[in-house]
Amino acid sequence: MNNLKVTQKNVYLIAGFVLMFFIFTNSNVFANDKIGFINLREIMQNSTNGKKLGDEFKKLYDKKNEAIKTTETDLKKMKDALDKQAASGLLTPAARKEKETVYQKKLRDYQILIDDTNKELKAKDEEIAAKLIPEIMKVVRAVAEREKFTLVMDIASMPVPYAAKENDISKKIIEEYNKQPQQQPQPQPPSGNKK
Known about the structure:
elongated; mainly alpha; two-stranded parallel sheet
């Protein structure tokens, strides 16, 4: 999976460099063309709908983080008590082994909780992106067509050595996107196992 991400990143980088090469080497061809830039990440974070969905994500994150912190505290108390009892010699070897087994089980449950939380947060982030990006791209296309842009590039997704601020239309996209009637984001029931 990581190799696929690296490969995709390399493809985007190469495509970006090839595109930049053609843009800058054929400047006479593109002299009359209008090129704009957006920062999709900025648009997602600063648009009204993006902020609503971001707040929803933060609430989920805070809830999950609280559960993780509580479990961490319980594990630490359990480990400290086990170490204290073992050091004082109050535990028989069988009782110590039993308590260590219970601790190890709770530690595995904690690790599963962390893994499940990470998966759930990643899925929620992908869900938000899947909702926002198509809506934002419609606005980008509309603005680009209306203002006669030949090309609009997302500077957040590929490195651009230089982009003139006057060609950054992110704020204009946010304004246009915020003017559209927004569907109220529907809270999704949390997926995954409840523990």
